[in-house]
Design brief:
Largest sheet: none
Structural class: mainly alpha
Radius of gyration: 21 Å
Distance between the termini: 41 Å
Shape: elongated
Order of helices and strands: HHHHHHH
């Protein structure tokens, strides 16, 4: 006989960490300074718009993959472009949606220690890590990826691993754009963590 699990005994700490960041933009505590609330709201609203726009890339990505499968299996007419289109759209979706994912707290986390800390301690650690590693790392990444993308555009670089040989400039350009979106959202997340460090509670 299958053992019944009491829902109250389930550890949902990780889910609660993500859930604390799932409120709609603008739903912030009344005691938060207006400049901070205004900045967070505008950035979160921007990331939400970007996320809703970027998600539409799923449609052409799925259509290209379905077309390739049908053409190859039933008409013996494989395409040269479907593979490249699908992987490029997937890469663009991943990079351009990263800022939105951060705003929703759905990036992969290693929370086996963090989740047991007080909210004040979490805020202090998050603020410190954003300032010490997140922003410097992303600035370096954006700088190098901008040069990487510009070189591809300037030289008319083409992919050499498939027969279609697509131009690589457009897809490489999403790297610095994605980094910029992460930097923008990082400002909002840093302010939220600073609020938690100062007040001992996360903005809901």
């Amino acid at each position: 006989m299958q053992e019944q699990i009491d829902p109250s005994e389930l550890d949902i700490t990780d889910e609660l960490i993500a859930e604390r960041r799932s409120a709609e933009p603008g739903n912030l505590p009344d005691d938060m300074p207006p400049w901070m609330a205004n900045t967070i709201s505008k950035i979160d609203a921007f990331s939400l718009i970007v996320g809703k726009t970027v998600c539409w890339m799923l449609v052409p990505m799925c259509l290209s993959m379905v077309y390739e499968v049908v053409a190859r299996k039933y008409f013996l007419a494989p395409t040269m472009w479907a593979y490249d289109i699908s992987r490029m759209l997937y890469g663009a979706l991943f990079m351009l949606g990263a800022g939105y994912a951060l705003s929703r707290g759905v990036h992969i986390r290693a929370d086996f220690l963090y989740r047991n800390w007080s909210e004040r301690a979490q805020g202090i650690v998050d603020t410190s890590l954003y300032l010490a590693f997140y922003f410097p790392g992303l600035f370096v990444f954006m700088w190098t990826s901008t040069d990487y993308a510009w070189t591809a555009v300037d030289r008319g670089e083409r992919g050499m691993d498939t027969a279609w040989m697509p131009y690589m400039g457009p897809i490489k350009s999403v790297l610095p754009i994605g980094a910029l979106l992460l930097l923008i959202q990082g400002v909002s997340e840093t302010l939220k963590s600073f609020y938690a460090a100062y007040t001992g509670r996360w903005p809901r």
